[in-house]
Amino acid sequence: MKKIPKLFSFLLSAMVLAACIPLPGIAATAEEEYNCTLSVGTVSGKPGETVEVVVSAEANHNVAAGDIIVYFDASVLAVESVDSIGLVQTGILNDGMLAGNPLPEDQQGVVRLAFASPYGSTENTGELCSIRFQIKEAAPSSVSSVTIDREDTMVTTIAGEGENIHPAPFSLTLLDGSVKI
What we know:
The chain is mostly beta strands and 181 residues long. 12% of the residues lie in helices and 47% in strands. It has helices at residues 3-20, 86-89, and strands spanning 35-40, 42-44, 50-59, 62-72, 77-84, 97-102, 110-116, 125-135, 143-148, 154-159, 166-167, 171-175, 177-180. Strands 2, 4, 6, 7, 9, 10, 11 and 13 form an eight-stranded mixed sheet that branches. A five-stranded mixed sheet has the order 5-8-3-1-12. A hairpin with a 7-residue loop joins strand 6 and strand 7. Mean pLDDT is 75; it is low at 7-30 and 91-95.
């Protein structure tokens, strides 16, 4: 009699273990894939003119915060202002805020943008801010890159609703822009 319960326990355990092992070609529970693209626009201008370069986000989920570092050639461009627009300005980031400042004189050629919202965006795609550059009078005819830092730029995304809001892992794509002179 004791052999049957032991055999039954063994078979039951084997079936439970077999159900937990993923088989090739059969997908286990698939998690939703989250993506976010940050991009810097490309504009044209002449020496002495002011141009506006827009930083945008495109995601398939809620973007909640970011710390974006943008590099430019300080021998060609000078920052006039950094302003919130689009997603940040209209409050779509639900009481969010943006701080964007060129770094101190010893770090010319860098603008750091930071934005945050406790609940994330209600829209997933749009402009975040504009950087107004004056093209220096002595700037040669060329294309001056405006790039996003690949190491220290960070974006936080969230998933879920209500009390179930949690950080969401995602893939981040960064697209650089330029000023054509």
